[in-house]
Amino acid sequence: MLKRTVYFESAAHLSFKNGQLLYTPKPEGEVRTVPIEDIGFVVLDNHSITLSLRLIEELTANNAAIVFCDKLHHPTAMSVPFDGNTTHAETLAAQLEMSEPLKKQLWKQTVEIKIKNQAAMLERKKSGGVEALRRHAASVKSGDTDNREGAAARIYWQNLFGEDFRRERFGGAPNHLLNYAYAILRAAVARSLVGSGLYPAIGIHHHNKYNAFALADDVMEPYRPYADEVVYGIWSAADEPIEELSREHKQQLLKLLAVDVHLTNTLRPLMVGLSYTTASLARCIAGEQKKVDYPVMKAVENVGGAA
Fold first, then answer.
1. pTM flag (> 0.85)
2. Is 149 annotated in some ligand binding site?
3. What's 4-79's CATH class?
4. Hey, what long-range contacts does 138-141 have (CB within 8 A, 24 or more apart)?
5. Are the folds of 4-79 and 88-285 the same?
6. Where are the domains of the chain?
7. Tens digits of residue pLDDT in 204-228
8. Residue 168 annotated as lining a ligand binding site
C-alpha cells in the first residue's frame, strides 16, 4: 500500500489516540485524524507545531519518517527509526564488511543508471545532450574513477535549464525547488533503507563523518531525474520567475513520492519502488545478488506495462 505524506503548515498540536494521529489546531479549530498505519511521512512546516512523545513512538513503530522544516520553510532535518527491520544487526555487519571492489561496482551501477535516466529526462523534454550523456553512461568505470557523473552533470543542467544555470545549493532559481524536492527524496530513501535493515550512515561512495545519511545520498542518485522532472514542470509552467516556494509549490513537490517509476519491468509509485531498490541493495551487500534494482526512466512519458 502506498503510504501517505501528511503536510502541516499551521500552528497545531499533534497527538495519538486509538491508532490515529490527532491534529488539533491552535488556538482552536476542527480536530482531524489520520490513521497511523497509512502514514509514510509527516512534514512539519511551522515553528508553533507541538507533538507528543507517544505520537513519535507510534510513527517510529510504523516506520514513518518525520521531516522538520526551517524558518525558510525548507526541509532541514528528519527522524527515522533506528531499527526498522528484524535482520538489522546482520545486515549492519555485512555493510561494515563491504569490500572496496564491491563498493566500486555498486557505485558504477549507480552512476550508469543515473546518467541514463538523465539522458531519458532530456529526451522527454526534447532537449539536446542526449547522445553525449549516453556516451558518458557507457564509459563509466568501476568506482567512476573518471568522474563521468560530473561530466554528465554539466551537460545535463545546461540542456535542462539553460546554459547560464548552475546547480548550487544556494544558487539562483530553480535551485530552491530542487533543494526541496531532493530533501523529500532523501528522507524517503533513508526511510526505505531502514526498512530494509540498512544503516543510512554507511555509504558505498559518499562518506563524511558528519553525514548520517551517506547511503541515502548514494541510493537517491538514479531517482534524482524524477525529482528534476517535477521541478521542471513547475518551473516551465510559471508565468513569472519563482522567487519563493508557495504552499502550492510544496504540495506539488511532495507528489514526487507518488510518481510512477519503471522498476523490475513494472510501473510502481516511487515510494514503493524505493523499497524494491533498497531491498535489492541489501541482497547485493549480503552477496545474494549482483545488481541493484534501480528505476529506468523511459524517454516517452507515461509508458505503462513491461519495460
1. yes
2. yes
3. alpha beta
4. 140/108, 140/111, 140/112, 140/115, 141/108
5. no
6. 4-79, 88-285
7. 999 887 788 999 999 999 999 999 9
8. no
